[in-house]
Amino acid sequence: MHIDPEQVPAKTGTVYPEPFKARLAGRSKRRLGDAAGLKNFGVNWVALEPGAMSALRHWHQRQDEFIYVLTGEVVLITNAGEQVLKAGMAAGFPAGEANGHHLVNRSAALATYLEVGDRTPDDQVTYPDDDLVAAAGDAGWIFFHKDGQPYSSSMSSV
Amino acid sequence: MHIDPEQVPAKTGTVYPEPFKARLAGRSKRRLGDAAGLKNFGVNWVALEPGAMSALRHWHQRQDEFIYVLTGEVVLITNAGEQVLKAGMAAGFPAGEANGHHLVNRSAALATYLEVGDRTPDDQVTYPDDDLVAAAGDAGWIFFHKDGQPYSSSMSSV
Question: Could you tell me which residue ranges the Cupin type-2 domain spans (chains A, B) (predicted)?
């Protein structure tokens, strides 16, 4: 099935609970894989406005992730430090590798990239810089404080 | 892990048995996902020279597939006919959808795209236009004639 990304609705907002939502301002996603009817993995076309980030810095226990920069440039931040990724560069984040990562657009121009992630069940997500842990539930991600207390209204569809 | 696609070896050739190998001339792949240590899905950067094709026309029983055109243009061929996909266009092929597909570069310029596929086990591949069936084995794809006879030397690592 052929997909024109411009015909796929751009979705802003995030499933993160408060007080984290505001930090995802300026990010929008088009769910190309879902639009094509794929189930085993997702492929999103993502746009980051200047100053926006891909996600809170995190790593997945069971799901692999991959990104490919299409236009502009982003800064990849991991435990190893920072690296500028320009259009045509890629990065992969193997499941279970305890190295939190995210992308930040520190440029003055829009940056776009493709992100791919599989849907292996029973995943958990660790956020090393924030009081946040996520567990995959039947209806989406469930968010907890690091002491195990759930965030209120934390059940959200992904 | 950051990946520079140009540093990932370009691989030509195919795991198809004879007499199909020659039809894949002009195709090269860089296995970006593997280079990043991903296991759950593969992401390949693929280049098609003028006249080259992505694969024999086929569909997967259990594995989803997705492509995103990076440069140039390709013709997507499915049961529904032909469609030109230019840079920035995408297509997805859900597992189990009995609609053989492939990409052909009918232009005079190189075309490049990203392809994504998951690694769900016990997959089978149907090739509607050719006397060929593939089954996922422990060490790669095993190829059969449509009457069930194996191709000689058909075990190949993927």
Answer: 45-116
The answer to whether B91 contacts A3, with C-beta atoms less than 8 Å apart, is yes
Interface contact B77, partner A, CB < 8 A: no
Q: Is B5 on the interface with A (CB under 8 A)?
A: yes
- Give tens-digit pLDDT for A113-154: 999 999 999 999 999 999 999 999 888 899 999 999 999 754
Q: Left, alpha or beta for B6 (phi > 0: left; psi -120 to 50: alpha)?
A: alpha
Going from the first residue of chain B to its last (158 residues), give the mean pLDDT of each consecutive group of 10, the final group possibly shorter. Answer: 94 95 97 98 98 98 98 98 98 98 98 98 97 93 96 57
pTM: 0.95
Q: Does B91 touch chain A (CB under 8 A)?
A: yes
Can you say how many angstroms the Cα of residue B7 is from the centroid of all Cα atoms in its chain?
Answer: 21
User: Which string of DSSP letters, residue by residue, matches B71-138?
Assistant: ESEEEEEETTEEEEEETT-EEEE-TT----BEEE--SSS-EEEEEEEE--SS-EEE-TTSS-EEEEET
A64–B2: do the CB atoms touch at under 8 Å? no
CB contact under 8 A, B116 and A116: yes
What integer pLDDT is reported at residue B154 of this predicted model?
46
Question: What are the residues whose beta carbons fall under 8 Å from the beta carbon of B19, sequence distance 6 or more?
Answer: none
- Residue B94: which residues within 8 A CB-CB, separation 6 or more? A1, A36, A37, A38, A39, B64
Helix (H, G, I), strand (E, B) or coil at A148: coil
* Chain centre to alpha carbon of residue B121: 17
User: ipTM of this predicted complex?
Assistant: 0.94
Q: To which H or E segment does residue A90 belong?
A: strand A90-93
List domains and CATH numbers for chain A: 5-121 (2.60.120.10)
**Residue B141: which region, alpha, beta or left (left: phi > 0; alpha: psi -120 to 50)?**
beta
